[in-house]
Amino acid sequence: MKQNEFQLRVNFGDTDAAGIVYYPNYFKWFDIAGHQFFRSIGLSPAKLMKEQNIILPLLDVGCTFERPLYYDDIITIKTTAEEVNRKTIKLRHEVFRQDVRTGHGFELRGWVKEENGRMFAVPIPDDVRQLLEEDGVGACVHMNPLLNA
């Protein structure tokens, strides 16, 4: 299945009063990594909407927290297309600080068409399914240049 990696630095505003990453940030990072994953394989969500009226709404999400993260940690989010069903795509996300996994989870996204103000799920095209199910890394592994600042 197709994979991608996205890297970022934990900001001070991502932490709670104890200095530990506040848990909703994992869901924010999953969303960012998911959009980056789709861009990396040529399925930019903005382009899909503009050219095909296709949106990728979030239908379900989950996360297991294994270790704390702190301000200034550099994390890597590894995203894999775990399941491609008729009208949904399940992305698996793993969050790492160096080689230590700190959490993992998933996003379930629909393949939805917007037409005349209505939204409805439609089958994922065969070429998109094939692209998602291919082994390999997306064309763009995003490593944030600000991490070296």
From TrEMBL:
<dbReference type="GO" id="GO:0047576">
    <property type="term" value="F:4-chlorobenzoate dehalogenase activity"/>
</dbReference>
<dbReference type="GO" id="GO:0047617">
    <property type="term" value="F:fatty acyl-CoA hydrolase activity"/>
</dbReference>
<dbReference type="InterPro" id="IPR029069">
    <property type="entry name" value="HotDog_dom_sf"/>
</dbReference>
<keyword id="KW-0378">Hydrolase</keyword>
<dbReference type="Pfam" id="PF13279">
    <property type="entry name" value="4HBT_2"/>
</dbReference>
<protein>
    <submittedName>
        <fullName>4-hydroxybenzoyl-CoA thioesterase</fullName>
        <ecNumber>3.8.1.6</ecNumber>
    </submittedName>
</protein>
<dbReference type="InterPro" id="IPR050563">
    <property type="entry name" value="4-hydroxybenzoyl-CoA_TE"/>
</dbReference>
<dbReference type="InterPro" id="IPR006684">
    <property type="entry name" value="YbgC/YbaW"/>
</dbReference>
<comment type="similarity">
    <text>Belongs to the 4-hydroxybenzoyl-CoA thioesterase family.</text>
</comment>
